[in-house]
């Protein structure tokens, strides 16, 4: 077991009311926990296993919050897919697949189990370690920046419709400010971030820093993160950048002459869902 003792495992396993579950794998992990897969694992005190984990969040009979970590990733993936389709699925990891039972929740959960006390951290003597808690997203910072990038990736069409070609910044070519307009002070910042992203091509980053997922047609949705920045792009279109140093801002980046090649290179080294 990692991060807890046998008493904690027994307490979590005793009538755990499952509320939700998430995947923690190189290709799909809660980005609010970190810029890459190893960092997200570290937030839970877990070693970055090659096949990843499934996280089962629930309450015990006393209402205490527990996160059960299982290495049966496929079981958790099936449960999540079933719930997304509105189907019932009894998610009960086999004891032999349980890697750890961690007190608390690493993510915010808006629901609670019926018929038990309100969600609370388990007794310290039972927990055996400091309870997990969700990252602070009340103010702008790395966690909020990554959540913003998540939202853009999911709602790409909505965000794309809000940006006209006039607002694009073309950082690679000074001759391409949109329709003669000044690209503004963001140009240097965008160049720096894209240069950092391009460095991943020569020096592969930690696992999960660059991820590729499905998009309509033959395109892919790219997600890349780095120190203080997040990039969301479609391989057949443009990119959006979010930066810690620019609270709440979303910077659109047009394709220009070099962005397509960068996106293609990043897609080749990106981790993809199996």
Automatic annotation (TrEMBL):
The identity of this protein, by name, is Integral membrane protein
């Amino acid at each position: 077991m990692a991060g807890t003792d046998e008493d904690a495992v027994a307490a979590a396993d005793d009538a755990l009311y499952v509320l939700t579950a998430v995947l923690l794998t190189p290709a799909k992990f809660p980005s609010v926990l970190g810029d890459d897969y190893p960092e997200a694992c570290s937030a839970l005190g877990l070693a970055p296993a090659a096949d990843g984990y499934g996280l089962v969040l629930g309450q015990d009979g006393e209402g205490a919050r527990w996160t059960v970590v299982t290495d049966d990733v496929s079981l958790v993936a099936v449960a999540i897919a079933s719930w997304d389709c509105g189907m019932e699925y009894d998610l009960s990891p086999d004891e032999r697949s349980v890697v750890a039972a961690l007190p608390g929740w690493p993510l915010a959960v808006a629901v609670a189990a019926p018929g038990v006390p309100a969600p609370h951290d388990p007794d310290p003597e039972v927990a055996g370690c400091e309870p997990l808690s969700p990252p602070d997203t009340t103010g702008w910072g790395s966690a909020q920046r990554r959540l913003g990038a998540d939202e853009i990736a999911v709602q790409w069409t909505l965000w794309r419709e809000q940006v006209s070609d006039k607002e694009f910044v073309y950082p690679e070519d000074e001759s391409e400010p949109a329709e003669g307009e000044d690209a503004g002070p963001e140009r240097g910042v965008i160049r720096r971030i894209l240069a950092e992203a391009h460095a991943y091509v020569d020096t592969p980053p930690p696992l999960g820093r660059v991820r590729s997922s499905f998009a309509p047609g033959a395109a892919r949705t790219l997600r890349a993160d780095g120190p203080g920045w997040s990039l969301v792009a479609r391989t057949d279109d443009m990119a959006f950048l979010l930066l810690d140093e620019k609270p709440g801002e979303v910077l659109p980046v047009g394709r220009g002459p070099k962005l397509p090649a960068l996106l293609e290179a990043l897609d080749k080294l990106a981790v993809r869902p199996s």
